[in-house]
């Protein structure tokens, strides 16, 4: 007697809801694995002081441990100044006002200059912030991008020189990062203009009646 072969159940297709549930489960599993991997306990040889000091904690996945490497970069403050006496005097005020920010002693100060500074200029600048060493870097504003002809192109802004303002913008956007003193020493860079001035923590009620408070 011939017996009919049992019918195989037809494969069930995943519904959109089931597929979404599966994807959610996979994502959560991956996130949990990543969290546990990245938050593995550091080796017992590292003290709490070492872990919280300014070092890079490098994770070795094969050993599931952290190792410390010295982190030498620091916060940098940079300014660009000409050799005009007025600009030098303004910069001195800006540097003196940095004392109101409670700067870390390791903060690096870099002064970029695009015209020759005299010894008198540099002495005045360094005496403005005696608590910090100040480095000076020369920037050549007579160089231009390749294929740009400054004698043919027209400038849309004239102040002290034909291309001075444009070169200043170019410097802060791109050229400042070409300097080794910035690349090798700075993990962050704050620009200070010669006419900047920093005040201590203050609260002014200039428009308090309008609900606006200046801090």
Structure overview:
The chain has two domains: 39-71, no CATH class; 74-192, Rossmann fold (3-Layer(aba) Sandwich), CATH 3.40.50. The protein contains six helices and eight strands; from the N terminus they run ααβββαβαβααβββ. The chain has helices at residues 16-38, 48-52, 85-97, 119-128, 164-173, 180-183, and strands at 55-60, 65-70, 74-81, 108-113, 134-138, 186-192, 204-207, 212-214. The radius of gyration is 30 Å and the shape is extended. Strand 7 and strand 8 (212-214) form a beta hairpin. Helix content is 30%, strand content 21%. It is of the alpha/beta class. Mean pLDDT is 76; it is low at 35-53.
Rounded to the nearest angstrom, the radius of gyration is 30 Å
Largest sheet: 4 strands, parallel
CATH architecture of the largest domain: 3-Layer(aba) Sandwich
Please tell me what the overall shape is. extended
Structural class, by secondary structure, is alpha/beta
Please give the count of helices. 6
CATH class of the largest domain: Alpha Beta
Could you tell me the CATH topology label of the largest domain: Rossmann fold
The ordered string of helix (H) and strand (E) elements is: HHEEEHEHEHHEEE
Order of adjacent strands in the largest pleated sheet:
5-4-3-6
Task: Give the averaged pLDDT, no decimals.
Answer: 76
Strand residue content: 15-25%
Helix percent reads 25-40%
Name the poorly predicted regions: 35-53
Into how many domains do the coordinates divide?
Answer: 2
Number of strands: 8
The termini sit apart by 97 Å
InterPro entries: Nucleotide-diphossugar_trans
